[in-house]
Specification:
5 helices, five-stranded parallel sheet, alpha/beta, about 30% helix
C-alpha cells in the first residue's frame, strides 16, 4: 500500500516501513517525528533522503490547526477538501456530523471553535475523504468520550477494509483496536 525507504528528515533517520490496508498506528513521544512523518507521507514535506511510494487513490492529510484557516467556516472547509478528493462520501460526512454533534457549527468560522470541535472538523473530513490512505494526527485530542467512541467505532470497522489504509499518529497505541501495523518512533524502542 504505502511504503517508505531510507526516509530521512529530522528527527526521522533512515526509516523503512510498509503500511498495509486497515488501521495502523504510529506512536512516539513528543518530538519523535510523528507529525513530520505524516507530512512526508502526504507530500507536504520533502524528505532529505529516501522515498515515499503512495498507492493510487491518493492520500488525505489536513492540518486545520494553523491560523491560516481561522476565517474559514466549517462547511467551506469541507467543501474545499471535497473538491480535491473525488471519492468523498457525503453520506458518511453527514452521519459523522450528526454523531459528533457538529451540525450546529457548520456555518461557524474555525476560529470560533474549541480545540476539540476544530479537531472534529478535520476528523470528519479525513474519514469522509474516500482516499486510499487517510492520515490522522492525534484525532482524539480535546475530544469528549462520546466523540472518541464514535471515531474508534469507525476505526474498528475500517480495520477489515481490504484496499484502504488509515494511519493514526498518537503518543501510544490503543489496546482496544486491532491494528494492521504498529510503528514506534521512540529511540529506545
Amino acid at each position: 500500500m504505502l511504503e517508505i525507504k531510507d526516509l530521512t528528515h529530522s528527527p526521522i533517520q533512515h526509516l523503512n516501513h510498509t503500511w498495509p490496508a486497515g488501521v495502523s498506528w504510529i506512536c512516539g513521544d513528543e518530538g519523535t517525528g510523528k507529525t513530520t512523518l505524516l507530512r512526508l507521507l502526504a507530500g507536504a514535506m520533502t524528505p532529505t533522503t529516501g522515498s515515499v511510494t503512495v498507492p493510487a487513490g491518493g492520500v488525505f492529510w489536513a492540518d486545520l490547526q494553523s491560523p491560516a484557516h481561522d476565517h474559514t467556516t466549517v462547511q467551506a472547509c469541507w467543501d474545499a477538501l471535497r473538491e480535491s478528493h473525488p471519492n468523498w462520501n457525503e453520506a458518511l460526512q453527514n452521519d459523522l456530523t450528526q454523531a459528533l454533534d457538529m451540525h450546529p457549527h457548520r456555518d461557524k468560522r474555525l476560529s470560533m471553535l474549541s480545540t476539540g470541535s476544530r479537531r472534529k472538523v478535520m476528523v470528519i473530513a479525513a474519514l469522509a475523504s474516500g482516499a486510499t490512505v487517510t492520515l490522522l494526527d492525534q484525532p482524539f485530542g480535546g475530544l469528549d468520550l462520546a466523540s472518541i467512541r464514535v471515531i474508534k467505532d469507525f476505526l474498528r470497522e475500517a480495520a477489515d477494509h481490504p484496499h484502504r489504509a488509515w494511519l493514526v499518529a498518537d503518543y501510544e497505541a490503543p489496546n482496544d483496536l486491532r491494528l494492521a501495523s504498529l510503528l514506534c518512533l521512540d529511540p529506545a524502542t
